[in-house]
Design a protein that fits this description.
1 helix; elongated; 22% strand; two-stranded antiparallel sheet
């Protein structure tokens, strides 16, 4: 049982939530924790929690929720036809005040491109 779990309260018989009250000692160590019904405020016994959903990926849980098929993971691989951005160029010189191209000595942005592109070894 943990804070926020849905329960059927044995005292008031209503559907409710668990409220947890923690008690600490002077050194801020947890001394005790007690559980209460959020509606009637009566103390609940420490019963074992409801069975948890087995570990599954977020995609599995989403597909189960929406009732559809499992979505396949998409992967992207860099190819020679990809854009030649200055950020990935050998001649890209990053400086705190200004970013320059070492060939043209002009101020550039990371998403600029040119014909003199040479790919960095990564």
């Amino acid at each position: 049982m943990k804070n926020g779990d849905k329960i059927n309260c044995p005292h008031c018989g209503e559907k409710s939530f668990v409220k947890e009250k923690k008690e600490f000692d002077d050194s801020f160590s947890l001394k005790a924790s007690t559980f209460f019904c959020a509606l009637c405020g009566r103390k609940l016994e420490n019963t074992p929690s409801s069975p948890k959903v087995k570990n599954s990926s977020a995609a599995d849980r989403l597909s189960a929720l929406l009732g559809g098929e499992k979505v396949q993971k998409v992967s992207f691989e860099k190819t020679a036809d990809d854009g030649h951005f200055c950020l990935h160029c050998v001649h890209y010189l990053k400086h705190p005040f200004m970013t320059r191209c070492t060939i043209t000595l002009k101020e550039i942005e990371a998403t600029d491109s040119c014909e003199k592109f040479e790919c960095k070894d990564e």
